[in-house]
């Protein structure tokens, strides 16, 4: 029997294996059969997991009747697609009661009026001066497309626009002329997505492993991963996104306007939905949608309970409004029907005459999108913006976009040179003179760094004061202790008797701590860096040591010449242009934080 069933036993006539050989062959055959069964079980488990995962992205009607599905939706039983660990918390919401669900089922989706349209009609009637008898109400029974108005009501679906001016262009340029959609607002906080910051990045450049299917992970582990079409990425905000350390997984969201995917999505407002990337990929592969029908956001902008409302009440940062989704997501009646194509067109870089400018990498600055919505919300103020300052702020947006949102590895101009010594080897003594860069402080912080929520951020006060600065150390500085220094070419801010007082820093400025100088006069205030920051900046050429120079020699020349005395030069036309932008940023910084106009 063993001879006939085992393929490795000879079947030629006269062959009769010994009893010992028979036992060995039986054991080998049993071991081979056990291994085959184990492989079959592993494949079956992988297939079952894949099927269950696919059912996870299947609409409710696939696993339940319409009546059961509607009762589940009415009772709030449907599974939320939002991650439970989003930081500020997103919980499943009960949108309808059972009676409300029955009423909606009876009316049908086409007969439901968007409450935002209804409110927009009331606002439009009020703006047109409708009298108490309601005349003109018949004319305004249907609100025109493209409506927009400013409001004080913060809710899910609200639009947030950053205020024009210098507030954000000095502090955080990614919020300068930004358009955000509030996708959640409740007692736990608020969450919004930036709509007008496209990037040159795709899913191939970032870590989004949570969106992979189990079979994808299995194929990657086996080295058999199939090539997948890369999805374009949009900058959603500065929370759990690009500011995360290397290797961290980013939080991400898929926004779309497809009514046929409503059962797989969470509705933000009527006709605007959010879903998981894994579900969006499944819909695209099943032919239910195209990947260009989705906007994939990495990161978000978040506020704690009541925080956003407090910022709106204080003013000076945000403009709250409401608008027709065709205005902030693009009109789909033209040739560009996909959501990505519409928003990409609205965010394209444009010249002063409103013509689209060819942009390397097709990144776009999103300024035109903000301009259109600002004109819709504040039509009387749109033409009052300062042309010169406005154009400068636009340049700051483009500079930030190129530094942070371009294709990874597309340009090495901003790469830092490798350090030849460690920070611990730097010897920085009191009285040492340092010269700061004329091109690297335009944005107020070293390129590639983000505001930190975990550690002390040395650029919480933006650093444009270091542009073309000459500073002197007040104490010996080591890598494990803070660094104190004073500006030697700061602006004049007053007099003590006949002596001129110069600005030395923000620490101690209110206490009027006066630092006398041997040459006469003195300074008020100083700056302080956390431990190790000054050493890191020296290694990265954001500032350097001015050798063979002391404080007396610096103070003997005019303020305008002190940076050149410390060895400062501009070697290229690009450096000259960057330095001119930095000069204007520094003047705005002194006006905003010191209250001094610098010529």
Provide structural commentary.
- It is built from 17 helices and 21 strands.
- It has helices spanning 2-5, 19-56, 66-75, 98-107, 115-127, 167-170, 214-221, 277-285, 307-314, 325-328, 339-347, 367-377, 387-404, 533-539, 551-555, 562-565, 573-593; strands spanning 148-150, 159-162, 179-186, 189-194, 198-202, 232-235, 252-256, 266-269, 272-275, 295-298, 301-303, 318-323, 433-436, 470-473, 483-487, 492-496, 499-503, 514-516, 522-524, 527-529, 543-545.
- Helix content is 31%, strand content 15%.
- It is globular.
- The relative contact order is 0.09.
- It starts with a helix and ends in a 6-residue tail after the last helix.
Task: Draw up the topology in text.
Elements (H helix, E strand, L loop, with lengths): L1 H4 L13 H38 L9 H10 L22 H10 L7 H13 L20 E3 L8 E4 L4 H4 L8 E8 L2 E6 L3 E5 L11 H8 L10 E4 L16 E5 L9 E4 L2 E4 L1 H9 L9 E4 L2 E3 L3 H8 L3 E6 L1 H4 L10 H9 L19 H11 L9 H18 L28 E4 L33 E4 L9 E5 L4 E5 L2 E5 L10 E3 L5 E3 L2 E3 L3 H7 L3 E3 L5 H5 L6 H4 L7 H21 L6
Helix pairs in contact: 3-4
- What structural category arises from helix and sheet content? alpha+beta
Overall shape: it is globular
Mean pLDDT: 76
Low-confidence parts: 1-15, 54-113, 409-420
**Major sheet characteristics:** 6 strands, antiparallel
Spatial separation of the terminal alpha carbons = 103 Å
Helix content: 25-40%
Radius of gyration (CA) equals: 32 Å
């Amino acid at each position: 029997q063993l001879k006939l069933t085992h393929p490795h036993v000879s079947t030629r006539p006269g062959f009769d294996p010994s009893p010992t050989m028979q036992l060995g062959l039986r054991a080998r055959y049993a071991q081979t059969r056990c291994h085959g069964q184990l492989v079959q079980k592993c494949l079956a488990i992988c297939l079952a997991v894949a099927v269950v995962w696919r059912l996870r992205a299947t609409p409710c009607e696939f696993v339940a009747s319409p009546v059961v599905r509607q009762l589940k939706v009415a009772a709030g039983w449907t599974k939320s697609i939002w991650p439970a660990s989003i930081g500020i918390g997103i919980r499943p919401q009960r949108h309808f009661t059972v009676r409300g669900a029955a009423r909606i089922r009876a009316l049908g989706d086409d007969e439901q009026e968007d409450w935002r349209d209804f409110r927009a009609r009331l606002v439009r009637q009020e703006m047109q001066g409708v009298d108490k008898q309601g005349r003109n109400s018949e004319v305004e029974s249907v609100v025109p497309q493209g409506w927009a108005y400013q409001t004080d009501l913060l809710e899910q679906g609200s639009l947030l626009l950053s205020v024009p001016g210098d507030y954000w262009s000095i502090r955080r340029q990614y919020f300068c002329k930004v358009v955000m959609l509030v996708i959640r607002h409740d007692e736990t906080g608020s969450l919004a997505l930036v709509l007008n910051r496209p990037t040159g990045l795709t899913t191939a450049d970032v870590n989004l492993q949570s969106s992979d299917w189990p079979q994808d992970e299995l194929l990657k582990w086996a080295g058999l991963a199939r090539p997948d079409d890369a999805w374009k990425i949009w900058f959603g905000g500065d929370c759990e996104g690009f500011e995360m350390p290397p290797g961290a997984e980013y939080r991400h969201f898929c926004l779309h306007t497809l009514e046929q995917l409503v059962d797989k999505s969470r509705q933000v407002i009527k006709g605007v939905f959010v879903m998981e990337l894994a579900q969006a990929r499944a819909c695209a592969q099943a032919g239910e949608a195209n990947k260009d029908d989705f906007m994939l956001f990495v990161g978000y902008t978040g506020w704690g309970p009541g925080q956003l409302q407090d910022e709106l009440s204080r003013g000076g940062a945000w403009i709250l409004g409401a608008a027709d989704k065709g205005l902030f997501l693009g009109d789909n009646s033209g040739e560009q029907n996909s959501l990505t194509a519409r928003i990409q067109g609205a965010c394209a870089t444009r010249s002063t005459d409103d013509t689209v400018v060819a942009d390397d990498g097709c990144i776009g600055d999103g300024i035109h999108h903000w301009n259109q919505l600002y004109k819709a919300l504040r039509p009387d103020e749109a033409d009052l913006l300062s042309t010169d300052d406005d154009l400068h702020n636009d340049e700051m947006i483009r500079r930030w976009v190129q530094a942070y949102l371009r294709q990874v590895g597309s340009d090495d101009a901003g790469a830092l040179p490798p350090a030849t010594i460690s920070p611990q080897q730097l010897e920085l003594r009191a009285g040492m003179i340092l010269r700061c860069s004329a091109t690297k402080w335009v944005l107020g912080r070293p390129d590639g760094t983000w505001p930190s929520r975990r550690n002390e951020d040395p650029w919480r006060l933006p650093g444009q004061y270091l542009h073309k600065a000459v500073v002197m150390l007040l104490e010996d500085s080591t890598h494990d202790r803070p660094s104190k220094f004073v500006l030697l070419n700061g602006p004049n801010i007053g007099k003590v008797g006949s002596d001129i007082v110069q600005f030395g820093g923000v620490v101690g400025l209110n206490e009027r701590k006066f630092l006398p100088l041997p040459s006469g006069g003195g300074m008020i205030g100083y700056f302080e860096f956390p431990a190790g920051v000054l050493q890191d900046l020296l290694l990265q050429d954001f500032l350097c040591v001015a050798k063979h120079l002391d404080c007396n020699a610096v103070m003997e020349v005019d303020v305008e010449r002190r940076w050149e005395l410390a060895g400062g030069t501009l070697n290229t036309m690009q450096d000259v242009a960057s330095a001119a932008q930095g000069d204007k940023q520094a003047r705005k910084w002194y006006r905003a934080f010191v209250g001094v106009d610098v010529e």
